[in-house]
Specification:
Layout lengths: L1 E5 H6 L1 H9 L3 E6 L2 E6 L2 H7 L3 H19 L7 H16 L4 H28 L1
Parallel strand pairs: 1-2
Antiparallel strand pairs: 2-3
Length: 126
């Protein structure tokens, strides 16, 4: 059974509404005339999958599965990643040559483009 009350009524009848929700009734609370909140038994959320957290978890699981399917596609090679790390250290020390600076810029640009492509591919795999 579902019960709908205004926010003001919910304040006045909170204990009663908690008991009803505990018995399995769904209590809908309206704000400005529109349904805004619900009081439900926690077990109902877990079994129906309506909890916000569970939908995020499902999305996270889908993204992880999609990322595994992509593997190392859309990533720099291990050699390129080592080169970026070495150039970044030199940059931090202030010892980069102009040629190395251009190489670092090119590798970072490539990483950015691969990241965009990976994000797009992940979105399509979900």
């Amino acid at each position: 059974m579902s019960i709908t009350v205004s926010a003001a009524q919910a304040k006045e009848r909170f204990e009663e509404l908690l008991e009803q929700a505990g018995r399995g009734d769904r209590v809908i609370i309206r704000r400005r005339g529109k349904p805004a909140l619900a009081l439900v038994r926690l077990t109902e959320l877990k079994t129906n999958g309506n909890a916000r957290g569970s939908s995020r978890e499902t999305l996270q699981e889908r993204l992880e599965r999609a990322a595994k399917r992509l593997g190392n596609r859309f990533r720099l090679s291990a050699k390129q990643e080592r080169r970026v790390a070495m150039l970044a250290k030199k940059n931090k020390k202030g010892t980069l040559t102009e040629a190395e600076r251009a190489e670092l810029f090119q590798l970072l640009h490539e990483m950015e483009e691969l990241s965009r492509q990976r994000a797009k591919a992940l979105g399509e795999l979900r």
